[in-house]
Amino acid sequence: MKAQLEVEYADGKKETFVTDQSWKASQGALLESDLLNGETYDARLEQKGWDGPGFNDGKWQSAQVFQDKAERKIQVYPGPPVKITQTLQVADFKSRGEHTYIFNMGQNFAGIVRLHVKGQAGDTIRLRFGEKLHPDGRLMTENLRMARASDTYILKGEPAGDLGTQVYISWISICRSNRSEKRSHARDPDRRGYRIGHAQSGQL
Q1: Structural domain contains residue 23
Q2: Domain range holding 180?
Q3: What is Dmax (Cα atoms) for the chain?
């Protein structure tokens, strides 16, 4: 990664932060993330406070620095940012056998899943996404071709439940399965929220 962050404070002071040998790195909870294939997130590996001041990074390793190349230029990304424009509730909720459920959102959109689940540390929830359902109610993924379109969330076992968000992806229906423990269960099924993002103008 090669990056440069330019900060302008309220008093007019400016400061520039660049990637160099002073940076540190560590393994976190986000194990993989891809627009088409999905995300794997192990909440047990979260490091509380890592993104705030005062965090103790004594166990982090120094980032490895590679020789730079002239053609590697830093540029401001030309596209508008993805923004949350709306939160959707589940339109239909059905069981598809032991520990497997279909959440139908009622429309096709690109968005981010917001989970609130309760279970033991290490319990695993897998989310699969699709734009259509088979006539018998099964999630259709054949039209996705090579895209895996799956998220995996591993619980850290919070007493009040885990709260997490998954990768930005396009879908209409979700197939949710608890793969490791029968004790994992979703909380308040009528209140699950799903966020819609739009990269063009911030509108649906």
Answers
A1: no
A2: 83-198
A3: 62
DSSP string, the chain: ---EEEEE-TTS-EEEEE-STT-EE---SEEEEETTTEEEEEGGG--TTTTSTT---TTSEEPPP----TT-------SPPPEEEEEEEPSEEEE-STTEEEEEEEEEEEEEEEEEEE--TT-EEEEEEESEE-TTSPEE-GGGTT---EEEEE----TT-EEEE---EEEEEEEEEE-S-TT-EES-GGG-EEEEEESSSS--
DSSP structure string for 36-92: TTEEEEEGGG--TTTTSTT---TTSEEPPP----TT-------SPPPEEEEEEEPSE
Residues 139-167 pLDDT 10s: 888 888 888 888 899 999 988 877 777 65
CATH at 192: 2.60.120.260
Whole-structure pTM value: 0.74
Most confident of 95-99, 107-111, 126-130, 144-148: 126-130
Count of domains forming the chain: 1
Spatial distance between the Cα atoms of 53 and 154, rounded to a whole number of angstroms: 27
